[in-house]
Sequence to fold (818 residues):
Amino acid sequence: MHANSLKSRLLCLAGGAALTVAALVGAQSSAEAKSSLSLGMVLEPPHLDATAGAAAAIDEVVYQNIFQGLTRIGADGSVLPSLAKSWDVSDDGLTYRFHLNTGVVFHDGTPFSAQDVKFSFDRARSEDSVNAQKPLFSAIEEVVVVDPDTVDIKLNTPSGNLTYNLAWGDAIIVSAKSVDTNKTHPVGTGPFKFDRWMKGQEIRVSRFDKYWGDQPKLEQASFRIISDPNAAFAAMISGDLDAFPLFPTPETIVQFQADPRFEVAIGTTEGETILAMNNARGPLKNKLVRQAISHAIDKQALIDGAMFGFGTPIGTHFAPHHPAYTDLTGLYPYDLAKAKELLTEAGYPDGFSATLKLPPPTYARRGGELIASDLKKIGIDLKIIPVEWAQWLSEVYKETNYDFTIVSHVEPMDIGIYGRENYYFNYHSEAFTKLIEQLNVTADDAQRNELLVQAQKLITDDAVNVYLFQLAKSGVWNANVKGLWINAPMPSNDLSQVYWANE
Amino acid sequence: MLWFAFLRLIGLMTTLLAASLVIFVVLEVIPGDPAEVMLGLNAQADTLAALRAELGLNAPVYTRYINWVLGMLHGDFGVSYTYSVPVAELIGERVQVSLPLASGALILSTALAIPIGVYSARHHGKIIDTGIMAVAQIGIAVPNFWIAILMVYVFAIVLRILPSGGFPGWDENFFGSLQALLLPVIALALPQASILARVMRSALLDVLHEDYIRTARAKGLSNKATLWRHGVRNALIPVLTILGLQFSFLIAGTVIIENAFYLPGLGRLIFQGITQRDLIVVKSSVMLLVALTIIVTFLVDIAYAAIDPRLRRRP
Fold:
């Protein structure tokens, strides 16, 4: 290598790098056409088959966009017709007859009929089903095709929840022809068809021309995966993204609220955030101890401190926007003297030590520190152990090897978990199990609500867990984007009603 | 030379095998069941069992290990538990981002570091040298994700001349893809360039005190010619060593940078695979990176031997 050539080569390298940099800057592409929408998501769906996984991210992409069920959940949480235009219930409550919409085709051109309904539900209920919400179908005895546009669902026991259950993303209707490839190339009956999935980057859908219902206004939509909170903020504020329906950093919301380019929508979710206690372990077996702990935690300070004020105090395991909700927040006010008294009565005047296992979400990690300092005031010494989700599922949820944990129960209407055998709270109550059994065979709304109120009171009296707050849904989007869901009654980003207002 | 290469090759194979064993065992030991992660809180026991059977998680440990290693030898890296597509395909897609990112950073850091290092050494002890070295010290101390955030703030939020992240894909938008990689490459390159510039400078200063430099000057070569012909050339050897070592740092750096700029690269694939317990993806991708690192080290070793004849004669 000759000296001068070495020098010139190095200079060339440096010059070339500088030129490339210069060429790349300043040629930012212009804004997208107004018939497309890009949405940010924190977690990438593992696959796109909503019948084979629990990840909410799957439903956030496919539910009501690509796939549809017999019924659907509206933005306000009510059960609405979808593929079934109406239904009748027999007098004994054991047969539901669904009348299906006509002229429906799957994205691959296959016509939809009652056969597909039978196929989908039989598959979800089968022995080798991998449906994450299999219990939704437990009341179904048989699915009978009456004619191509009518299907009967026969139940083994009356189920007041059936039409609601069938509105879950896990109960969508799939076609036998495309079912095996739905994970990578979903084919449904919805207003949008799947285009492309650039893994780790984005999922694209576009308007389905042969959609049976009203055509959506959007032509295209892309779901972009942005897991880093700082990157999410940058993508939104720089205008690279049009919407972030579940914005991950509450602390930056104020900045968007102050900026007229953006719309900030704070809504509700189905996420009851609780300090779960292992009711079968040590001092926590004692109801008085659990009540003392309930008194010792300042819930409003927790909402302000960990969630920047976004969240609603609950007092029980129930969503505050549901008609059957009863306000029990006054039952355990923040009262250290009372907490100390209860703890002494229970035989732990000096408190005790225990562990607090925290999964990754912000509410848990930040909330955990505040709770640990609250409980220290009554002598309970918590050792914080951060865990990953996978670890949480196996250690806390499955093996119930924990004392305390913080988690948000995002499944809608899930108070029934308190009646489950060996559920991770290790709570056993004959009275509660009876209430749930009664609820399952009650179809009348007023009676159901009454039973639900009783159930809420029971678990709160027993102080099974500390009920912290209802998780808020903080969405941020371009001020011209209209029609996105403000609340999240079910995991979904229903795009069928979304449009751009005039510039 | 051939014998030397052969011995190094044996070493390479043994290291790879040992690495595969370590990776496999570590991932077996960490808590978390892929089926549970996929099916969530409401899954029934029979549903979990059905999924485990589908994923082939019921075979004994040693069978799974042997199948995995044999598969990789045939180029079969297994099928992702969550994505349900071949891992090789996933890796293939991700390499299209990570490879340009890492090599771009390598080129940029070299292109910045060598001229700066030489310049600094030539002005040794002067205020400009102290200034450059102070800046380089900051470059080493500042973590690359912070540089990333800072650059996004300046170029994407304030100036709005570059995207804040993401990757449009080479086939769809070549220029946009280059653009998307620009800030990540710089964020990844700056700390490496700082280290390299310091190494270049001190290596050159060492060399400039050697006898042969004095000889070169004595035989009448100009200062400049001495510097480039005898100084820089000899000083490049330690720089090459550092470059080889930096490769693994670059790989580690891509994990962080890819998260900061939400690029669909190999680092994020591994990161995501760990949280979702998509163990087959983690195992195979990590194995690939290990292999890559070992091969680079192997090539550097061979390159030394090619440059320096003394190394070849070692038994």
Observations:
- The first helix of chain A runs from residue 3 to 24.
- Chain A touches chain B through 68 residues (CB under 8 Å).
- The two ends of chain A are 61 Å apart (CA to CA).
- The mean pLDDT of chain A is 90.
